[in-house]
Structures are given as structure tokens and as C-alpha cells.
Amino acid sequence: MVGTNKGNFNTPHLKTGDPLPPYTGKLRLYNMRYCPFAQRTVLALNAKNIDYEIVNIDLMDKPEWLTTKSAFGKVPALEIAENVSIYESLVTVEYLDDVYPQRPLLPKDPVKKAKDKILVEALSPIHTVYFKLVRGPDTITEDNIAAYHKNLTFIQQELQNRGTKFLDGDQPGYADYMIWPWFERLHVIKHDLARLDKQKYKLLLEYIDNMFQDPVVAEYKLPREALEHFQNQYKLGLKPVYDFLIQK
């Protein structure tokens, strides 16, 4: 079953034995509803108001045909023509920005574009802490914590230096949407590392509040109970119910 960008994101996740949906001629995103990397591509598609369809994938019981769409068996993968796909989140987003000129996400200025890419590439300490918080908080090291706070401070300093509501101006752009999925997920984790100090990170917390109010973010935002279910199952070493939002 496929969904479209008209708000039908919560279609069943296809698994081993499920047939590949027939090609419709429409741009197609192979997605997983809870995947922060795939969310980057969804946010770019929705920000640009591109007509596309979603095929959700159960990444713990993958359909046999997934590697014909994504060589590494991962999402996101963007099928741009029948049997022609590109994958990796940042690659798909840059492709969309190149091909669909409406609402550019990357800055046109080469220096500003480079700075946006540096900011996104520097996000790995936040990725690390997030995934360790989900899978095993006791594996977080002092070095992880130091790098995490250094990265948060770097993002906040960028906001201050740019002097804009969002990293890319008066509305979110490339840098905003590419870092956002991890802030959305950290927001629901009950751990001291996920609770940002209101004095130290005042500007960053204001930014997070502004991002939650962005229509593109709000349209795809996962309900708290769905994220908590997914994260708690991972922490327990159990398979999450991928179709939680359909079955509840």
C-alpha cells in the first residue's frame, strides 16, 4: 500500500513476502515512519510541495526487493523513474533542491551553502547520544557528553551569529530540516541529557519551539506516544510495532 504527500504518511510497513507496489509514474519515497534520516527527505518534499507517494518499509523484516531500490537496503530511497533510484538522505535532498526550484532549501551563496553543510555534517555527536539514549544510556561516555554539548553550543552560536529566527532565515531551510529529526526525538526522551538547560540553551530552546510551529514540521510530526513506543521497544531489545499509528 502506498500513501501520498496529502497527509497519508501512516501506511502499512511492507515486509518480507509483500509484493512491490506497481510503479505509478509518480515520484516515490521508500520510507520508514520513525526513521530520522528518511524524515529529512520527507521534510524536503513537503516543504517544496512536491507530488509524491510513500512506500513504508519494515526495516527489521525487509521485503526482498528493497535492495533493487536501495543498494544498501536502507531508507530513504527516492525512485525518480521506474527502476531508477537514489538513496542516502542528504543526497536525496540535494537532488530535490536541484530538480525542483520552488522554495530553495540550500542557500545560493556558495559560502552560506558550505556553512550549512558544515553544520549538518557536524551533527554526529547528537546522533551518537540520541541512539545511545535509546539503545543503552549506560554506554554513553564522558567524551560523548562533551562532544554533544559542544555541538549544541555550536548550533546555538550559529543561530546567534546569523541573527535569524531559523538557521536559514525567516523560514526553515536545508540546515534546519536536516538537523531537526533528532531534536524532535530528543524532546520525548526522559533523561537529563535530553533536558536542555533553560539558561545555557535559551536561544536553542526558542529555536526548537519555533521549529515545532513550522507547518512542514507539524504535518509530519510523530505523536509522543508513538515515539515513546518505538524508543522503548528498542531499549528493551524488542521489535517495535511499525504500524503502531495504524493499529492504535
Automatic annotation (TrEMBL):
UniProt domain GST N-terminal: residue ranges: 25-104
Record-linked InterPro entries: Glutathione-S-Trfase_C-like (IPR010987), Glutathione-S-Trfase_C_sf (IPR036282), Glutathione_S-Trfase (IPR040079), Glutathione_S-Trfase_N (IPR004045), GST_omega (IPR005442), GST_Omega/HSP26 (IPR050983), Thioredoxin-like_sf (IPR036249)
One protein family per Pfam: GST_N_3
One GO CC term on file: cytoplasm
Biological process according to GO: glutathione metabolic process
Keyword set includes Nucleotide-binding: no
Keyword presence, Ligase: no
Keywords: Oxidoreductase, Transferase
Gene Ontology MF terms in the entry: glutathione dehydrogenase (ascorbate) activity; glutathione transferase activity
Gene3D superfamilies registered for this protein in UniProt: 1.20.1050.10, Glutaredoxin (3.40.30.10)
GST C-terminal domain sequence ranges: 109-244
Similarity comment text for this entry: Belongs to the GST superfamily. Omega family.
Name of the protein this chain belongs to: Glutathione S-transferase omega
UniProt source species: Spodoptera exigua (Beet armyworm)
